[in-house]
Design brief:
Layout: E1 3-5, E2 12-14, H1 30-38, H2 46-57, H3 66-85, E3 92-93, E4 100-101, H4 111-117, E5 121-123, E6 130-132, H5 153-168, H6 173-187
Antiparallel strand pairs: 1-2, 3-4, 5-6
Helix pairs in contact: 1-3, 5-6
Length: 196
Amino acid sequence: MTLAICVACGSEKFGAWVPCPKCGFNPQTKIDKAKSFMLSDHHYASDELYGFGERIASGQPVRYDPVHRAYCSQAISEHEYFWAHVDRQGTLQCRRCGATFTPEEEEALCPRCILETEQALWACPNCTKVFQGDAKYCQSCGAILTSKPGLSPSGLGSQLAIACRRVLTAKDPLNKSTFLAEARSRLSGFVHRKWS
């Protein structure tokens, strides 16, 4: 079950898009859904979520990063597309190519389009370099590469955009420089590429 914080009153609830049991607020708009999704355990640890809840309950504003909110809105759009278009037989037309397929979960893209848009990336567990294609071993240290859910070009790009935005809005120039240098070194890890 998803731990979330009500964006209206700061109370704990289980499910980002369910009505708050305390104040009754029910996120309906995409912005409210994105904010609710952001304040869930999909994005923050429970102690951070409770901190957001205390801020909201005391009337202090929560700053919702616009890049992170856009990333969450994409997931919401796919979820809404799925439920608006899945038929009684459980088939769906792909949001990208229009082909009819049977989704395994709530995906809005057919397996072919997912493969084309979300090609898996492989990461080295030792030196954090990232590779794309059919590489099996790190070209720097020789370790066996691994893949994780969300480790894809769009997932990595979204995570980097969110992190860079947070760093660039921070006030400490040393932290900005350190983080951005690390991000550049991770991107230079694309030493094995296979583009179609």
